[in-house]
C-alpha cells in the first residue's frame, strides 16, 4: 500500500543541534565543539551541579515519592519559587497574587505555551523579535500562529547594540504589538542593553502599549548574580504593567535534558491572573496534558532549602566566572598573536555566547581545517572553551581572518 | 520593518529620543486580559480536584485513570524504583536529541511491533520519543495538518475527551464514528463498519488499540480482522492510540493484537504509545509516536519532519522518564520484573470487576451488570446517567466523571461493597 506521507520531504538538519551531530561524527582528536550552548568544565566535560546531585539523592531516597500526574500547571511550589526567583521575593506583583506561573518544558515550552495563549486571547498577533535571535524563536512563534517581525538589535560594525535602530523599530511598531526581549545574555550575540538603555526601552514599550515577552534563559549565568541578571525584568514589573516571562533552568541549574522551565504572566490583578492561568491550562492539556515531574522536583528541592539555594548560587557563580575568564583569555591570546581586527567585543559581550563577527566562509574553513564546530553565524559557545583549547581556537581564527575573506 | 522605520525616522525617532518623562496614566491602563473568561474545569482532572477537597471519610475516587493498589494507594513499581536507584548520580542530564532517546524508542517499538518485527529490521518506522500519549497524538495531529492538509480525523463516540482538544488545537477537522452501543453496553459493530464504509476513501481514523477509554469495550479479534479488511478496501489510515498495553489483559503481546493484525494486512499505520499506566510513569510524561513508512528513506524523512514539529514545541523531550524505560526494558531481569508487575495490576483490576459485578447481583439489582466483566482495562462504562452520577457524588461522596465512567483502578476490596451499594441505591428504581 502506498504511504499517505510519500509527499513528505526531508527536513533540513536543525542548524544548532546539527552542529553537535557533525561534531560527533568527526574522528579528529583536536576537534572542538563550540556549537550548542551547554556548559563544559575546564576539562571539557558536562557538569552536573553538586547541589543537583544532592537533590537527586534526596528524591530517590524518599519512599513516599510517587510518579503521579502533576497538575496541568505543574508543581505548585516549583511555580511559586520560580516566580520569586525571577521577580524577587519582595515583588509586589507576587504579594498581590498578580502572577500566573505555569511549569513548562524549559524555555522553549514556556515560549510556545505563552505564544499560543497570546494567539487565543490577545488582540494583537504580531511579535517583534530582535535581529538576530535564537534560531528556534521564529519557528516557535510561527507554529503558535503569530506573525513575526524583526527589530534591529545587533550592529555588525560595532559588534554591539544598534540602540538607535532598536528604538526606531519598536517606536514604529503597531500599538499593542508583542515584543520579545532577551532578559540578559542575548543569544546569539551576547550583546545586552545597559541599565540606562533598558530604562529607555521600558519607557518606549509602555508608551506604545507594546506587550513585553521576556526570554530569561541565563539568569545568574551571565553576570554570576541572579539579581543582576533579573534587573531588566524587574524594572518592567515594577512599573505595574503586564508582561510575559519564559524562564529556563537548563543552563543555570544544568538541567538541560530534564526540560524544566516556567511561564509567568504578570497581570494587573489577582482576578485576572487566576482567569489567565485557567486559560493557559487549556493550551497545555491538548499539547502534553501536564509537564514532567522530575526536573521540577529537583529545582523545587533546591530552591526551598536555604542551604542548597546558597550552595547553588556559589556553583552558578563558578560557572559564570569560568566563562568570563575564557573571554578574557581568548581576547588576550588574539591580541598576543596580533590577529587583525578589534576583538574587544569578546570581553564586552556577556553570557554563554560570543558573536565573533566571522562570516559563513570563515566558519566553514575553521570547521574543515581546524575541526572547530560552531554555528555558521559565527557564534561560539564560550562554555565549550578551556584554557587548553584557547590556543587551537586562536590559531583557527587567525588563519580564517587572514586567509579567508 | 526596518525600511518602514527609516521612512518615519524623522518624526517618530525624535519624539522617542526626547521621551525621558515618566509615563502618564500607566497605572490607570486596564489589563490586556480583562476579557479573558475563566476556563471550564477539565472534566476528568476536575473530578480529582473535587475529590481532594471533600472532607468525608467515606469518599471514593473512581475518577481519573491512575492505578491504585488494594489499599487505594498510588504505586511505584519495584522495577521503576530499582531503575531510579541505578540512574541517580550517574546521568549527565544533557539534552536528548529532538527525537528523544534512541534506546528508549528502540525498546518501545519492539513492544508495539514485536521483538522480531521485520519493520524494525528494515528501519521502516519513523519514531520519536513523545510527551506520553497526549504528546504523541498531538505531534501526529500537527504532522497530519502539515502534510495532509484538508484531511479530517474520525474519532470514536465516545472517546477520551482530550482527543477532541488535541486534533482541534492542531486544526484538523473532526468527524465521528459509531463505537459504543448504549443498549448492549458493548460495541456497535454494525454502526462502526457502516461509518468506515461511508467515509471517503483515504480517511484518517483514530482507533484505541486496546482497553478503549472510556468504555472498556474492545472489538474481538475477529472483528478487528474485519475492520482491517474494510480499511484496506477503503484505503484508510489507521492511527492507534495504545495507552494500556499490558494493562488490559496482563499480556502486552495480546494487548497489541489489533496493531499486529493491521500490520499483517499491510497497513501503514501510526501509533501513540504511553508508559503512564503500564509502567506507572504518569508524571514523567514518557511515550513514543511511530509512523510505519514504505521504506527506510521515507522513515528518515518522516522522522526529520516530526522533529521539526517537536523543536518549536519543547525542543527535545525530557530525559528522566526515558532513562527509566530504557533501564528497565534493556535489562532482562528488570524487564521480566516489569512484566510480572504489569500482570499483577491487570489481574487486580480484573478481580475487582468480578467482585463489583457479583456484589451488584447479590444486592438484587434489577439491571444487568454483565458489561462490568465484559469490558476491559482501567475503565468501566457503567451506564449510569449524569444525574445518577451526581447523586453518587452528593449522597455517597463517590467521584467519577459524569459520563458514568468508573476507574476500576480506584476500586478496592475495601470500597467495592460501599460502591456496589451506592450504585444499587441510585439505580434500583430504574
TrEMBL record, chain A:
Cofactor list: pyridoxal 5'-phosphate
Matches recorded under Gene3D superfamilies: Aspartate Aminotransferase, domain 1, Type I PLP-dependent aspartate aminotransferase-like (Major domain)
GO molecular function (one): pyridoxal phosphate binding
Keyword Transferase in record: yes
GO BP term, example: amino acid metabolic process
SUPFAM superfamilies: PLP-dependent transferases
Family: Belongs to the class-I pyridoxal-phosphate-dependent aminotransferase family.
Note: In eukaryotes there are cytoplasmic, mitochondrial and chloroplastic isozymes.
Record's subunit section: Homodimer.
Protein name listed in UniProt: Aspartate aminotransferase
Species for this entry: Brassica campestris
From TrEMBL, chain B:
Alphabetic keyword roster: Aminotransferase, Pyridoxal phosphate, Transferase
GO molecular function: L-aspartate:2-oxoglutarate aminotransferase activity; pyridoxal phosphate binding
Listed InterPro entries: Aminotransferase_I/II_large, Asp_trans, NHTrfase_class1_PyrdxlP-BS, PyrdxlP-dep_Trfase, PyrdxlP-dep_Trfase_major, PyrdxlP-dep_Trfase_small
PROSITE patterns named in the record: AA_TRANSFER_CLASS_1
EC number: 2.6.1.1
SUPFAM superfamilies: PLP-dependent transferases (SSF53383)
Catalytic activity: L-aspartate + 2-oxoglutarate = oxaloacetate + L-glutamate
Cofactor(s) needed for function: pyridoxal 5'-phosphate
Biological process (GO), any one: amino acid metabolic process
Highest rank taxon of the organism: Eukaryota
Aminotransferase class I/classII large domain boundaries: 58-423
Leader sequence residues: none
Self-association state and partner proteins as the record states: Homodimer.
UniProt function note: Amino acid aminotransferase important for the metabolism of amino acids and Krebs-cycle related organic acids. No activity with D-Asp or D-Ala as amino donors. In plants, it is involved in nitrogen metabolism and in aspects of carbon and energy metabolism.
Further comment found in the protein's record: In eukaryotes there are cytoplasmic, mitochondrial and chloroplastic isozymes.
Family per record: Belongs to the class-I pyridoxal-phosphate-dependent aminotransferase family.
Protein name: Aspartate aminotransferase
Amino acid at each position: 500500500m502506498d504511504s499517505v506521507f510519500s509527499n513528505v520531504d526531508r527536513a533540513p538538519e536543525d542548524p544548532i543541534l546539527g552542529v553537535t551531530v557533525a561534531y560527533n561524527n568527526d574522528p579528529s582528536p583536536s576537534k572542538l565543539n563550540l556549537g550548542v550552548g551547554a556548559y563544559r568544565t575546564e576539562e571539557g566535560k558536562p557538569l552536573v551541579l553538586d547541589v543537583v546531585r544532592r537533590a537527586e539523592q534526596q528524591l530517590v531516597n524518599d519512599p513516599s515519592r510517587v510518579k503521579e500526574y502533576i497538575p496541568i500547571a505543574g508543581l505548585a511550589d516549583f511555580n511559586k519559587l520560580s516566580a520569586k526567583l525571577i521577580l524577587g521575593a519582595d515583588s509586589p506583583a507576587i504579594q498581590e497574587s498578580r502572577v500566573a506561573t505555569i511549569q513548562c518544558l524549559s524555555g522553549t515550552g514556556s515560549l510556545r505555551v505563552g505564544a499560543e495563549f497570546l494567539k487565543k486571547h490577545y488582540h494583537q498577533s504580531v511579535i517583534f523579535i530582535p535581529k538576530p535571535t535564537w534560531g528556534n524563536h521564529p519557528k516557535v512563534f510561527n507554529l503558535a500562529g503569530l506573525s513575526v517581525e524583526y527589530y534591529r538589535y545587533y550592529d555588525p560594525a560595532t559588534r554591539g547594540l544598534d540602540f538607535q535602530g532598536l528604538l526606531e523599530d519598536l517606536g514604529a511598531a503597531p500599538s499593542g504589538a508583542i515584543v520579545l526581549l532577551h532578559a540578559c545574555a542575548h543569544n546569539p550575540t551576547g550583546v545586552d542593553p545597559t541599565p540606562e538603555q533598558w530604562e529607555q526601552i521600558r519607557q518606549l514599550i509602555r508608551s506604545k502599549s507594546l506587550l513585553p515577552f521576556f526570554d530569561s534563559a541565563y539568569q545568574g549565568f551571565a553576570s554570576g548574580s541572579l539579581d543582576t541578571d533579573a534587573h531588566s525584568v524587574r524594572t518592567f514589573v515594577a512599573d505595574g504593567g503586564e508582561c510575559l516571562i519564559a524562564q529556563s533552568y537548563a543552563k543555570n541549574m544544568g538541567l538541560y535534558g530534564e526540560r524544566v522551565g516556567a511561564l509567568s504572566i504578570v497581570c494587573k490583578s489577582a482576578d485576572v491572573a487566576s482567569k489567565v492561568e485557567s486559560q493557559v491550562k487549556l493550551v497545555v492539556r491538548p499539547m502534553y496534558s501536564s509537564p514532567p515531574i522530575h526536573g521540577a522536583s529537583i529545582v523545587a528541592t533546591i530552591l526551598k532549602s536555604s542551604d542548597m539555594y546558597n550552595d547553588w548560587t556559589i556553583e552558578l557563580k563558578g560557572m559564570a566566572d569560568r566563562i568570563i575568564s575564557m573571554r578574557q583569555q581568548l581576547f588576550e591570546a588574539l591580541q598576543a598573536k596580533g590577529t587583525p581586527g578589534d576583538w574587544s567585543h569578546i570581553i564586552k559581550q556577556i553570557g554563554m555566547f560570543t558573536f565573533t563577527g566571522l562570516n559563513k566562509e570563515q566558519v566553514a574553513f575553521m570547521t574543515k581545517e581546524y575541526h572547530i564546530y560552531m554555528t555558521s553565524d559565527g557564534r561560539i559557545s564560550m562554555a565549550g572553551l578551556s584554557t587548553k583549547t584557547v590556543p587551537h581556537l586562536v590559531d583557527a581564527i587567525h588563519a580564517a581572518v587572514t586567509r579567508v575573506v | 520593518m526596518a525600511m518602514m522605520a527609516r521612512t518615519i525616522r524623522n518624526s517618530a525617532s525624535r519624539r522617542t529620543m526626547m521621551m525621558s518623562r515618566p509615563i502618564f496614566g500607566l497605572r490607570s491602563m486596564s489589563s490586556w486580559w480583562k476579557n479573558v473568561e475563566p476556563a471550564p474545569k477539565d472534566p476528568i482532572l476536575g473530578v480529582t480536584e473535587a475529590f481532594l477537597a471533600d472532607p468525608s471519610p467515606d469518599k471514593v475516587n473512581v475518577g481519573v485513570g491512575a492505578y491504585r493498589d488494594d489499599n487505594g494507594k498510588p504505586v511505584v513499581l519495584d522495577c521503576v524504583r530499582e531503575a531510579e536507584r541505578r540512574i541517580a548520580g550517574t546521568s549527565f542530564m544533557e539534552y536528548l536529541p529532538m527525537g528523544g532517546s534512541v534506546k528508549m524508542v528502540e525498546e518501545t517499538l519492539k513492544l508495539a511491533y514485536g521483538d522480531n518485527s521485520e519493520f524494525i529490521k528494515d528501519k521502516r518506522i519513523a519514531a520519536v520519543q513523545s510527551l506520553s500519549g497526549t504528546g504523541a497524538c498531538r505531534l501526529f495531529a500537527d504532522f497530519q495538518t502539515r502534510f495532509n492538509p484538508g484531511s479530517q480525523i474520525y474519532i470514536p463516540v465516545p472517546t477520551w475527551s482530550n482527543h477532541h482538544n488535541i486534533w482541534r488545537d492542531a486544526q484538523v477537522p473532526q468527524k465521528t464514528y459509531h463505537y459504543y452501543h448504549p443498549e448492549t453496553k458493548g460495541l456497535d459493530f454494525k454502526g462502526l463498519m457502516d461509518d468506515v464504509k461511508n467515509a471517503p476513501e483515504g480517511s484518517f481514523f483514530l482507533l484505541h488499540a486496546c482497553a478503549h477509554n472510556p468504555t472498556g469495550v474492545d472489538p474481538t479479534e475477529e472483528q478487528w480482522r474485519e475492520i482491517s479488511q474494510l480499511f484496506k478496501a477503503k484505503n484508510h489510515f489507521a492511527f492507534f492510540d495504545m495507552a494500556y498495553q499490558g494493562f488490559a489483559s496482563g499480556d502486552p503481546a495480546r494487548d497489541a493484537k489489533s496493531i499486529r493484525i493491521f500490520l499483517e494486512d499491510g497497513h501503514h499505520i501510526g501509533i501513540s504509545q504511553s508508559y503512564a499506566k503500564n509502567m506507572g510513569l504518569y508524571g514523567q510524561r514518557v511515550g513514543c509516536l511511530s509512523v510505519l513508512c514504505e521504506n527506510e528513506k521515507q522513515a528518515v524523512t518522516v522522522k526529520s519532519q516530526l522533529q521539526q514539529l517537536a523543536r518549536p514545541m519543547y525542543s527535545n523531550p525530557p530525559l528522566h522518564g526515558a532513562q527509566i524505560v530504557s533501564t528497565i526494558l534493556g535489562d532482562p531481569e528488570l524487564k521480566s520484573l516489569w512484566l510480572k508487575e504489569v500482570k499483577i495490576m491487570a489481574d487486580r483490576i480484573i478481580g475487582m470487576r468480578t467482585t463489583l459485578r457479583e456484589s451488584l447481583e447479590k444486592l438484587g439489582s434489577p439491571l444487568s451488570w454483565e458489561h462490568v466483566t465484559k469490558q476491559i482495562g482501567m475503565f468501566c462504562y457503567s451506564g449510569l446517567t449524569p444525574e445518577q452520577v451526581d447523586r453518587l457524588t452528593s449522597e455517597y461522596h463517590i467521584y467519577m466523571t459524569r459520563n458514568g465512567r468508573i476507574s476500576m483502578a480506584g476500586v478496592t476490596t475495601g470500597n467495592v461493597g460501599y460502591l456496589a451499594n451506592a450504585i444499587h441505591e441510585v439505580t434500583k428504581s430504574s
